[in-house]
Design brief:
By secondary structure, the chain is α/β, with parallel strands linked by helices. Helix content is about 30%, strand content about 20%. It is globular and about 50 Å long. Keywords: Glycosyltransferase, Transferase.
Length: about 280
Amino acid sequence: MSETRMDLSDPDVDPFEVARAAAAVIAERTGVERHDVALVLGSGWGGAADLIGETRAVIDNADVPGFSRAAVVGHSGTIRSVSLGDTDRRALVYGTRTHFYEGKGVRAVVHGVRTAAATGCRQVVLTNGCGGLRPEWAAGTPVLISDHLNLTAASPLEGATFVDLTDLYSARLRALAREVDASLDEGVYVQFRGPHYETPAEVRMAGILGGDLVGMSTTLEAIAARHAGLEILGISLVTNPAAGTSDQALSHQEVIEAGQAAAARCGRLLADVVTRIATED
């Protein structure tokens, strides 16, 4: 595919062909034919990359077809190839994601997980920073995602593509995560479009619908990952109480600070979980 045919916003371009082209560049730059597990590091999770294992290669997003530079403060615009402990397994670590609110289209949002599948990954760990609806989840609490509500009014699937999402977030991987940290709770993640934070009324609506966590990412990636054949683990970091559940004003700086405060715990948790996934598979 020529460089002029790599535009994911072009409806005549096959997004899976772009993902295969991206995987080929990653293989060339990392010197390995395949990766085993992928991680998408959301707000508050950036420090985890250094604890997962030894970084063997770092690739600038702009050098890989279909990817773009980080658009959010606190995210890293690179892709890392990381060795997992003493194993021969490799993790593909995305330091950022494309958010739906950036206006680049759903194809761009899910390009990372489709590329991960094209590199050979069988599992993906999707992380995010979010607002929590439960008062017992203080800022800095990691929570496993058991299910989601997609309130973006969009889907990464095109045409008559029907995919079962009954067990979208793997019960097996959640059980592995709880073997690492038995205190991990779980809840339903709700994705709003953003980039504005939710109103108190919208948060109350999310709770009535069964939501426990609110944010601006993850659900579209999870759907695309299932379609691509990946097993999915979702982990949210509660960075703040959701709007209306406390008297605190919301700010992105608060999200960054909560992530920094929880970096050691969350980084170690993620490293141990990813190693467990790779060795159990």
